[in-house]
């Protein structure tokens, strides 16, 4: 269970995706990009623009049976156009336990796997990432959050003794 939160803004996400693109320039050129849906879709779009890559595939892996329980990962959308991954770049937003990345790598063994954020358990499954995040930290992506009004300190009720 995560005990801390790390909020990522749209600006940070864009900057990190551009930083990853710079590193990826020396690993390419790539025939195409496979976005790991859904979290990898927006990072993949930014990276595809930077790398001038127009062939975009997607893979969708479901790892949750219900809200709590994790089941066997199931690929519910296959990246047909990517074959065995040869010449392709796979993009996800983050690796946590590494379960999703492992399933993607099994399906696309020849692809390069890159993501923006990596927690220690998932780190060995990525070829490239931008920022390491502690295992006990839950990353809040811009699509997970909304700006919220926070009352001024002076208006907060005094704590009762
Ligand atoms: O390393 P793991 O423990 O597998 O966790 C990482 C995966 O979890 C999140 O996706 P999620 O399954 O929540 O689905 P989504 O991308 O559709 O939101 C995230 O986008 C990664 O794909
Ligand atoms: N948004 C989000 N999804 C995840 N899926 C697995 N780990 C995470 C995380 O830290 N943040
Ligand atoms: Mg995902």
Short description:
This protein is an alpha/beta fold and 161 residues long.
Would you write up a description of this structure?
Strand 5 (88-95), helix 3 (99-107) and strand 6 (112-118) form a beta-alpha-beta unit. The relative contact order is 0.19. With 161 residues, this protein is an alpha/beta fold. Helix content is 22%, strand content 30%. The chain has a single domain (4-134), classed as 3-Layer(aba) Sandwich (Rossmann fold). The chain has three helices and eight strands; from the N terminus they run E-H-E-H-E-E-E-H-E-E-E. The mean pLDDT is 95. The protein binds 1-O-pyrophosphono-5-O-phosphono-alpha-D-ribofuranose, guanine and magnesium ion. Magnesium ion is lined by residues 36, 38-39, 92, 100.
Give every kind of bound small molecule, once each: 1-O-pyrophosphono-5-O-phosphono-alpha-D-ribofuranose, guanine, magnesium ion
How many domains would you count in the coordinates?
A: 1
Indicate the CATH class: Alpha Beta
What percentage of residues falls in helices of 4 or more residues?
Answer: 10-25%
Give the spatial strand order of the biggest sheet. Answer: 4-3-2-5-6-7
Tally of strands: 8
Rounded radius of gyration (Å): 18 Å
What is the fold-level CATH name, i.e. the topology? Rossmann fold
Outline: globular
Number of helices: 3
Q: How much is the average pLDDT?
A: 95
First and last CA, distance: 32 Å
What keyword list fits this structure?
161 residues, alpha/beta, Rossmann fold, six-stranded mixed β-sheet, 8 strands, globular, binds 1-O-pyrophosphono-5-O-phosphono-alpha-D-ribofuranose, binds guanine, binds magnesium ion, Xanthine-guanine phosphoribosyltransferase, cell membrane
């Amino acid at each position: 269970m995560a005990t801390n939160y790390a909020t990522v803004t749209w600006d940070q996400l864009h900057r990190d995706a551009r930083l990853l693109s710079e590193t990826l320039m020396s690993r390419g050129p790539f025939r195409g990009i496979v976005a790991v849906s859904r979290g990898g879709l927006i990072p993949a779009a930014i990276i595809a623009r930077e790398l001038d890559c127009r062939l975009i595939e997607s893979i969708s892996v479901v790892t949750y049976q219900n809200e709590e329980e994790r089941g066997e990962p199931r690929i519910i959308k296959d990246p047909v156009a990517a074959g065995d991954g040869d010449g392709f770049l796979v993009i996800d937003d983050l690796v946590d336990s590494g379960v999703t990345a492992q399933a993607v790598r099994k399906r696309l063994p020849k692809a390069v796997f890159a993501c923006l954020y990596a927690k220690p358990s998932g780190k060995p499954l990525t070829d490239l990432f931008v920022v390491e995040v502690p295992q006990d930290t839950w990353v809040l992506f811009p699509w997970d959050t909304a700006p919220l009004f926070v009352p001024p300190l002076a208006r907060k009720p005094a704590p009762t003794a």
